[in-house]
Design goal:
single chain; mainly alpha; Glycerol uptake facilitator protein; 10 helices; 0% strand
């Protein structure tokens, strides 16, 4: 399998399960409606782990442009391969969101709140202050990138194949501790791909796709990922 295909499939699984848990909690008449933040963060953690296990042996399971760019910035990934990885991640995120739409097809017309529908696909800040929302995304993705490099620096997780599960735990911790202000995109493809799906899919009463905010979960994670990677190398060495 091509690494690009692996990135597409892995990111698709990540979004299918991640956006899927948000749909379960947010949409009317779902059996998990109003299950709460703990369920959402747990679902996203497991989604990341599953996506990483799906693609890891072929592509390294970046599944996130911020991770790809961060690794390239410290010389652990070739820059020539970056565009293909980013395109595959975005395409996978879009397809995963379409699959969520299909899985919950009966629940869109049963849900009147357009904000709830948008929140299934993309992040929405709790308090809309873009500069502070940007800072939150930078901090969250910094922790993600630094943490991933720390996990991979230890031989035991890599040799025992539990590294993807530990990355899932890391995402769980970020969601619980730092995710509430913005919904913790910490991944440009995770927000942009599903937001494009929201804009294009025939969802009745969906409202707008909030493009005025869309740059925050793209720029913030990119900055955070680069800073996290550079900081890790600065502190611990390559």
């Amino acid at each position: 399998m091509s690494p690009w295909v692996a990135e597409l499939v892995g990111t698709m699984f990540l979004i299918l399960l991640g956006d899927g848990v948000v749909a379960a909690v947010a949409l009317n008449k779902s059996k998990a409606q109003n299950a709460g933040w703990m369920v959402v963060t747990t679902g996203w953690a497991l989604a990341v782990a599953m996506g990483a296990y799906t693609a890891g042996r072929v592509s390294g399971a970046h599944l996130n442009p911020a991770v790809t760019l961060g690794l390239a910035a410290i010389g652990r990934f070739p820059w020539r391969a970056v565009p293909g990885y980013l395109a595959a991640q975005l395409a996978g995120a879009f397809l995963g969101a379409v699959a969520v739409w299909l899985a919950y097809l009966a629940h869109w017309p049963a849900t009147d709140d357009p904000t709830a529908k948008l929140g299934v696909f993309s992040t929405i800040p709790a308090i809309r202050r873009r500069s502070l929302n940007l800072l939150t995304e930078i901090i969250g993705t910094f922790v993600l990138m630094f943490g991933i490099l720390a996990i991979l620096a230890n031989a035991a997780p890599v040799q025992s194949d539990i590294a993807p599960l530990l990355v899932g735990f890391l995402v769980w911790a970020i969601g619980l501790s730092l995710g509430a202000p913005t919904g913790y995109a910490i991944n440009p493809a995770r927000d942009l791909g599903p937001r494009l799906a929201h804009a294009l899919l025939p969802i009745a009463g969906k409202g707008g796709s909030d493009w005025s905010y869309s740059w925050v979960p793209i720029v913030g994670p990119v900055i955070g990922g680069l800073l996290g990677a550079l900081a890790y190398v600065r502190v611990f060495g390559a």
